[in-house]
Design the sequence.
């Protein structure tokens, strides 16, 4: 199978893209810890493919920042720095509102149908306390919203940013801040219901073609989400004049 970026598994061909997605998912989920080696032979055995699509997948993951190549060690899971973690949040805060604005201008009825269906499901799961089912729904919602922007490049970048942010802040959460005495911890169920209410308002603005409203709502929603990431892993204050202020704690 030399030179072929597809593998055969169970009588069907597995593309390098599918292998890449599988390795990426395992990195994001923590199956491969930062700094751990990724050998072609072991990966090929794990996913039941040849080394050719694995090699192609590792090159792609390196370009995305999930994998790095070390001298004398080969491919390893990347170890993101504090600066990179903070930069990811700043970039998302800039691009996600732009994506929502473009979605209001370019969305199709098919996009709206999916978005409305996801909001309905998200609200039902949140109200029923089925919080463990909300993350994949949220990922699907934001990927659909990104696709509705009508820009494949922007959509791909937004999806990659969300994946990488989740990975970075789960991979090395660091010390959690000590809550202030008497402070009330946010109720996860209440927060989930509020988040999906924000999703619903955003879809309404996108459906009306109100680009300004969609951008404003996405800004509020994104700032709240990114503030929650910062609480997981406090980032040292930087002096960059381009940093985004999310001190309000809005998501």
Sequence:
């Amino acid at each position: 199978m030399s030179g072929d970026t597809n593998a055969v598994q169970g009588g069907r061909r597995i593309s390098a893209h599918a292998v890449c997605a599988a390795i990426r998912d395992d990195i994001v989920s923590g199956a491969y810890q930062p700094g751990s080696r990724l050998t072609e032979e072991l990966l090929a055995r794990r996913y039941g493919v040849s080394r050719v699509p694995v090699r192609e997948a590792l090159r792609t993951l390196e370009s995305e920042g999930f994998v790095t190549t070390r001298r004398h060690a080969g491919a390893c899971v990347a170890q993101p720095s504090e600066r990179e973690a903070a930069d990811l949040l700043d970039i998302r805060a800039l691009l996600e509102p732009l994506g929502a604005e473009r979605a209001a201008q370019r969305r199709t009825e098919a996009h709206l149908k999916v978005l409305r269906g996801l909001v309905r499901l998200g609200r039902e799961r949140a109200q029923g306390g089925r919080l463990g089912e909300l993350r994949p729904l949220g990922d699907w919602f934001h990927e659909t919203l990104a696709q509705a922007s009508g820009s494949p490049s922007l959509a791909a970048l937004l999806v990659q940013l969300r994946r990488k942010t989740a990975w970075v802040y789960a991979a090395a959460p660091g010390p959690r801040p000590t809550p202030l005495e008497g402070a009330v911890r946010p109720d996860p169920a209440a927060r989930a219901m509020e988040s999906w209410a924000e999703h619903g308002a955003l879809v309404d603005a996108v459906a009306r073609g109100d680009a300004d409203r969609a951008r404003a709502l996405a800004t509020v929603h994104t700032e709240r989400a990114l503030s929650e990431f910062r609480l997981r892993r406090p980032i040292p204050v930087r002096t960059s004049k381009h940093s985004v202020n999310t001190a309000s704690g809005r998501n």
Residues 1-12, 173-183, 234-251 have pLDDT under 50 and may be disordered. The longest helix spans residues 82-106. DSSP finds nine helices and four strands in the chain.
